[in-house]
Design brief:
By secondary structure, the chain is mostly helical. Helix content is 58%, strand content 0%. It has one domain: Globins (Globin-like), CATH 1.10.490.
């Protein structure tokens, strides 16, 4: 699979995840994520491919309308850092694509850990060299599961796919997002994860 040239994004630079493939399998089982979901995500990737920027417009409007979320992309005194928002947007777009198309293997697990650490004091702000707040509160990562999953359904429904296929793609997306946020929670509580 070709690597992206988005600054700060790349599977080749991520250290191995402390989460094993076996633990990932247990997490998949816990959210009922199976081969049919993998197939549904591939189809979702086809549907969403040309809509990524529109999805990001919706998500960024939501973040911008919620000061507690915009704060994570702002200076400690509350001024949004526009170049930071732009660089994260590019990575977020690639995350959408990768959620649908990449195999959930050791390389994917390693990058999930990298994403996780970038929300914590361990690596927040390091990919972009910015002076933003030192971490993203875990409560907002968890809370964002809803808008990140609910808003995608309308994009999946565009086109001529039958309703049951749209439902399957949406459920696979939801399961994947829940699973990823669970992985991103690991650095917040490494001794109890």
């Amino acid at each position: 699979m070709g690597e992206t040239t988005i600054p700060g994004y790349g599977y080749g630079n991520a250290a191995p995840s402390p989460v094993s493939v076996e633990e990932l399998g247990l997490l998949k089982a816990s959210v009922l994520f199976g081969p049919e979901d993998e197939a549904a995500l591939r189809r979702a990737g086809e549907v969403l491919a040309d809509q990524v920027e529109e999805i990001l417009d919706v998500w960024y409007a939501f973040v911008g309308a919620n000061p507690q979320l915009l704060a994570e992309f702002s200076t400690p005194d509350g001024k949004p850092i526009t170049p930071y928002l732009e660089r994260v947007r590019a990575r977020f777009g690639q995350w959408i694509r990768d959620t649908c198309t990449r195999p959930y293997d050791e390389a994917w697990l390693a990058y999930q850990e990298e994403i996780a650490e970038r929300h914590t004091p361990a690596k927040k702000n390091t990919a972009d060299g910015v002076a933003s707040v030192p971490y993203v509160p875990l409560r907002y990562l968890i809370a964002l599961i809803y808008p990140i999953t609910a808003t995608v359904r309308d994009f999946l429904a565009r086109g001529d796919r039958p309703a049951e296929e749209v439902d399957a793609m949406h459920e696979a997306w939801r399961k994947s997002v829940i699973m990823q946020v669970a992985l991103w929670s690991r650095p917040y509580a490494p001794d109890t994860w």
